Amino acid sequence: MKLILLAIMLFVFAGCADNNDDQTTDEPEEITDNDENSDEIQDNDDEQDEADPIEESEPDYDQLKEIIIEEFEDATPTEWGENIDGVVTEIDTDDKVVSLTFDACDGTPDTYDEELIEFLIEEEIPATLFINAQWIEEHEEIFTDLAENPLFEIANHGHDHKPLSVTGESAYGITGTESPEEVFSEIYKNQQLITELTGETPDYFRSGTAYYDDVAVEIVKSLGLTAVNYNVLGDAGGTFDKNQIVSAFESAQEGSIFLFHMNEPDSDISDGVIEGVQMLKDQGYDFVQLGEYDEQLK
Ligand SMILES: [Zn+2]
Predict the structure, then answer these.
(1) pTM above 0.70, yes or no
(2) What total of structural domains would you count in the chain?
(3) Quick one: angle between helices 269-282 and 114-122, nearest 10?
């Protein structure tokens, strides 16, 4: 049974990871072919006909969890860090574009940087927002408004905002997840929450603190997501002052991915971003969501 589910999952995810090939896969045709011969005869066999495809559709939460545990329980990580193999840090392009990414981390009250987001909206600056489940639960109406705005692409920033480890490694004093099962929950609970609230399934994941081990990165991939960090540290967790943030913008290059926060309204982030965005515009840069360059993320 597990092998069958794994095969189904691999098939489903192979499709997700390789959008260009989707049109050439024959899944729907195969199903039609089987039915064609017997269309007229099978009027009485409707029950059988309908049961098969439904059963093979998508594994549910518990089934997926079992698949992940089975596949990764014996894996030993060899890397730990922010920018390890398999984690995207830039766009491979000569186009004069940069991607601004904003994390929404904790779910305490008053953690929405409205000035920052209103600036992006007024200036029509597209961005990718990595949102943690606790932040969503505290700011649900704001979250759904942001998700409905086509300027913003919603990405997954974890359920409990933990570093992503299969062995309980920690970063910045925060203990990470401790097993493949916990890695799965950290990713997938928020994935489900976002999908329920927006009707869209995120393509990108960033762990709380942006730390991963290499096994956890493989689990992210197995769940159809891409782990994304950055190559320009925009605000250092909200600790940069305005001048430091503007300096970060000065290091922009074609394809840079910036990391900022949208949950620190009392910081200098909005002031720095307002000045930095204007500077890059003057230099001729455009701002893009990660999804616009999905094939060139590296
Ligand atoms: Zn965060």
Answers:
(1) yes
(2) 2
(3) 20
